[in-house]
């Protein structure tokens, strides 16, 4: 008899791709599974602004006391300004807390909805969505339902399906939106489409929950990437917002994130804040301080902030360049397929439209590793490996 004899083995996580990649001895192998930025040499990248901020944090010889329940105070307040805009009228009506990166923000948001949302305890997420969304919200005690988002045939947005699903849901439903750089498809609504989505949500009294994991990383411009969030705010929505600094500051393992809720007024925000603390305290007491101090240095020092914005743009631009290059190479090889979606999609990921059996062949014959849904992490492409990648796709797909 074993105490845990009843525990079945779970399926392997996405990290399985990296394992297989590591075990491959082909010199030309490429890992397009990673959800983290790589430079043009294929190496992880620590932003110079982050190095500088970290240096300052260390030179300041700060102590290691606990942060408050809602974190290092200068961090969430500055993060909110980054998201909502420096002079946003809602800044004094929000309850905002530091979280354990974007995942933690979503989890707190899920917990909040389960505890305090008076409507149905159901959250609607796009099909497809980031693989973790469903699990996070289910573990928060919510029911997760899908809404239409991606159109396989056009490798683009199923805008009509999305609007139809918004209209078909019971009034007051909670909808999760990727604020920019939709993961895994790289397909975003246009500004005009966001305006329409906001209008329909108002009409239906839906509650929008934005997951913003890539602000600045999508277009290279933090304001442009915040368009959807700010449009919904202009239209009067009381949104929930999750922010991650994993990608745009490259702070992955530091777990620096923020969650906020827009209230009716400052007094309501205070009440919300008090209840957020009651949710967080028994979960992990208070969040880690180091990454938050780094992010706070960057966000609160105008010079460092400007430097950081340039570096985010540098990452975004490299990704955009790799998209162009891959498309050009495929066209130059004489591919008869339309690859325009590679350059019209945005952010870290490209949905190639390759079928699972094609992905398998590409991996087997060319040692190019990516997920079966045909998603490639564009940040794994470099000026050196793009030829091999284009060749692999062309040989299998034509
Ligand atoms: N949301 C989306 C859509 C993501 O792609 C990610 C990371 O890949 C996250 C949230 C959260 O990441 P983290 O918890 O590292 O901030």
Automatic annotation (TrEMBL):
Transmembrane segments: none
Superkingdom field: Eukaryota
A GO molecular-function annotation: L-aspartate:2-oxoglutarate aminotransferase activity
Matching PROSITE patterns: AA_TRANSFER_CLASS_1
Residue ranges that the Swiss-Prot or TrEMBL entry lists as coiled coil: none
Catalytically driven reaction(s): L-aspartate + 2-oxoglutarate = oxaloacetate + L-glutamate
Name of protein: Aspartate aminotransferase
């Amino acid at each position: 008899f074993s105490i845990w004899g009843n525990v079945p083995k779970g399926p392997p996580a996405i990290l399985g791709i990296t394992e297989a990649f590591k075990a491959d001895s082909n010199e030309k192998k490429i890992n397009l599974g990673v959800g983290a930025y790589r430079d043009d040499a294929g190496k992880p990248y620590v932003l110079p602004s982050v190095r500088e901020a970290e240096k300052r944090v260390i030179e300041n010889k700060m102590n290691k006391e606990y942060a408050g329940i809602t974190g290092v105070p200068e961090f969430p307040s500055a993060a909110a300004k980054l998201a909502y805009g420096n002079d946003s009228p809602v800044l004094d009506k929000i309850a905002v807390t530091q979280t354990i990166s974007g995942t933690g923000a979503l989890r707190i948001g899920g917990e909040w909805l389960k505890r305090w949302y008076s409507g149905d305890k159901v959250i609607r997420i796009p099909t497809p969505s980031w693989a973790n969304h469903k699990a996070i919200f289910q573990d928060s005690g919510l029911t997760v339902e899908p809404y239409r988002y991606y159109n396989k045939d056009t490798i683009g947005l199923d805008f009509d399906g999305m609007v139809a699903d918004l209209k078909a849901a019971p009034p007051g439903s909670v909808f999760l939106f990727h604020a920019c750089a939709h993961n895994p498809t790289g397909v975003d609504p246009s500004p005009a489409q966001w305006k329409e989505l906001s209008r329909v949500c108002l009409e239906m009294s839906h509650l929008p929950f934005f997951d913003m994991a890539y602000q600045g990383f999508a277009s290279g411009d933090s304001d442009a990437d915040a368009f959807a969030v700010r449009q919904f705010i202009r239209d009067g929505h009381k949104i929930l917002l999750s922010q991650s600094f994993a990608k745009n500051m490259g702070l992955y393992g530091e777990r620096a994130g923020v969650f906020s809720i827009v209230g009716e007024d400052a007094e309501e925000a205070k009440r919300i804040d008090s209840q957020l603390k009651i949710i967080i305290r028994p979960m992990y007491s208070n969040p880690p301080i180091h990454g938050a101090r780094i992010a706070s240095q960057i966000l609160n020092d105008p010079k460092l902030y400007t430097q950081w914005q340039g570096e985010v743009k540098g990452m975004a631009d490299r990704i955009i360049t790799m998209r162009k290059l891959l498309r050009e190479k495929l066209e130059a090889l004489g591919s008869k397929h339309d690859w325009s979606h590679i350059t019209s999609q945005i952010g870290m990921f490209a949905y190639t439209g390759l079928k699972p059996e094609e992905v398998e062949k590409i991996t087997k014959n060319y040692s190019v590793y990516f997920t079966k849904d045909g998603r490639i992490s564009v940040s794994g492409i470099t000026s050196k490996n793009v030829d091999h990648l284009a060749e692999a796709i062309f040989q299998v797909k034509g």
